[in-house]
Design brief:
Chain lengths: ~300, ~260
Amino acid sequence: MPALVHFYALHSKLIDQIGINAIFALSLSLTLQAGHLALANAAFGGIAAYVASLLSISRGWPLVVTTLIGAAGAAFVGALIGMPVTRLRGVFLAIATIGFGEIALIVENNLSITGGAEGLSQIPNETTTWKIYLVLAILGFFFWRLRLTRAGWAIAAVREDEHAAASFGIDPSRVKFWTFVGSAAIAGIAGSLYAHENFFIAPGDWGFSRMVDILVYCVIGGVASPWGAMIGAALISILPEVFRFLHDYRDIVNGIVLLAVVVFAPQGIAGLWSSDRRAPRLASAETPTEVPAIGEQ
Amino acid sequence: MASNRGNTTLKYRDVGVSFGGVHALRSVSFDVESGHVVGLIGPNGAGKTTLINVTTGVVAPTTGTVMLDGVALSGKRQHQIARMGVARTYQNIRLFPRMTAIENVIVGATRIRRDPDLGAFVFLPAVRRARIELEEHARYLLSRVGVPRDQWTTAANVLPYGSQRRLEIARALAMRPRVLLLDEPAAGMNPAETASLQALIRSIAEEGVAVLLVEHDMPLVMAACDRVAVLNFGELIAQGTPSEVSRDPAVVEAYLGSEASL
């Protein structure tokens, strides 16, 4: 036990970082599960971070309130740009969302309320490790159950074959729109937690390089798997610490890992499990027992 | 004929489709009624698949309308038409590749699922029971169309070709369709498989489904269909019972060449 406390004291910052990155990874995994590549999660995280931080600074509201308002703001902006943008396919959607991210950066750099290029400082340090991992647990539960709902099936069907999904009564544009909005909201939660962890945010925190980091978490974890995304985030967040002795070259490790995954395990870490060992989707595969009379489990 | 789904009629009226001056379909009119199998035959490029695409909302008709029990389908989007109970299979198989056979059938049942979406998050027992029923129904359909039991949890893209074709039909049936559009279901099947397919198609119709069968396999069309419509270069050149159509000189001329006979 003391060893654990010591370990936490030494690495609490990294542990928090892993959790926040995992939430970012989950946000992207939602759109990836529906088979579309939208790259605005860093920007949505930024929007929510600014909204939440400004409310924390000016009103002193608790983290839970500011984070929810921030996430709602990100979701609202996501809905606005999602309407035209989610009609696009493949690389066009990726480019349009990258473009949106650049616009958000320029706005944040030039507004006085966001503190311009200097950013916002003196954000109350309200994020704690348990809060991050509570959010992660709730999101994990959400993604776990989502697979079993009609919405979850629709998302998977659209990923597999949009056209065939439509011929079974699933509206692909609706699926794409709502996964985009949901993804923006989750990214918003991550952004707010990040802001309240670090005292300080600036437009540069939400740029393309952060977006690439989030994408790398998901690719390493296994593109359409929320569990993989979380594992990928943890791995990529830890590696630079493990390879600290490489000094200036330590970021190379991330690149090498990414290359290795793409070449040797294109399905990512989640793909290393064979398909019959993945989380069961069928009720009959979940538990061999009969249906309990009251409640489940 | 037993009909437990009322009387459904799919009506094509003056349906025409042109792609930039090329007429894929010209003024096609005929009906498909519940309990009946209507065969749609014609040489390659005659417009058979285009007609299915018009019915399902993939292609908008340039002229004319498609009506399902008096409701115009033209102008509706693909998923809306599907929700009205129009199911299809694909000539070039379009299963959900990385889903298992049973999962494909469950997606097919999307239209008839009634379990509340939020129920899964609060572990509602009713939702669990609904899921189990859904899976039982899917297993029933897989055995009905003849996908071997040991393939039920196999990913669709690694199933044998014949099973993929059958799975296409099971997935469409999962919707409990009023209208079923089969696009060359017998392609690549051997005579024994085709014979069981014929029995399956008849049994589907007898449940009150209106079946449109696009097919090149003449013996199957002759045996399975109540009526046959013949397309040639986008035009309906004949329709009637299989024996009437097979004796029609215009059909023999256009479809089989003047030398051949059915």
